[in-house]
Write a structure and sequence with these properties.
The protein is α+β, with helices and mostly antiparallel strands. The protein contains two helices and eight strands.
């Protein structure tokens, strides 16, 4: 048997194993930029992650993400623990000096605003003039 035939046999026998890796994209959804939703075990149990050059680290929000949306300025998240606003790079620092930017938790989490109730979330979106410009376009799960 020639070397090319051996290689062909080995490759074709490994193809069924590769399908495990090809199916993994169903459990990851890119929201915007480096922000991703990933479902680890349950296909409906999405959590928010930040991709730092291929390393996701731990979930940014410790509860299930029910919905997500974005525009060029913010990412919005509805989780089972509340609502979050994540300013993207295009928001100027002085725009965030509205009193809602006091939720510093360190590393990437320092950008996140929340968790908020629905009413406070809407008020804070209006404060940075994003209330009519962004909607939840990825509905993922119920929080019941």
């Amino acid at each position: 048997m020639t070397l090319s035939r051996c290689g062909l046999i080995v490759l074709t026998s490994l193809l069924p194993l590769n399908s495990c890796f090809w199916g993994a994209d169903r459990s990851e959804k890119n929201i915007a930029g480096n922000y991703w939703l990933r479902a680890d075990d349950d296909a409906n149990d999405y959590h928010l992650y930040y991709d730092n050059q291929g390393e996701f680290g731990s979930s940014l929000i410790q509860s299930r993400v029910a919905a997500a949306g974005y525009n060029e300025r913010v990412v919005i998240i509805k989780s089972c623990a509340g609502y979050y606003i994540i300013p993207l790079k295009s928001i100027q620092h002085d725009e965030m000096e509205t009193g809602i930017y006091n939720n510093v938790q360190g590393d990437i989490r320092r950008k996140m605003l929340g968790p908020f109730t629905r009413a406070t979330f809407n008020k804070n979106l209006a404060a940075i003039e994003e209330d009519s410009l962004v909607t939840f376009n990825q509905l993922l799960a119920d929080c019941q």
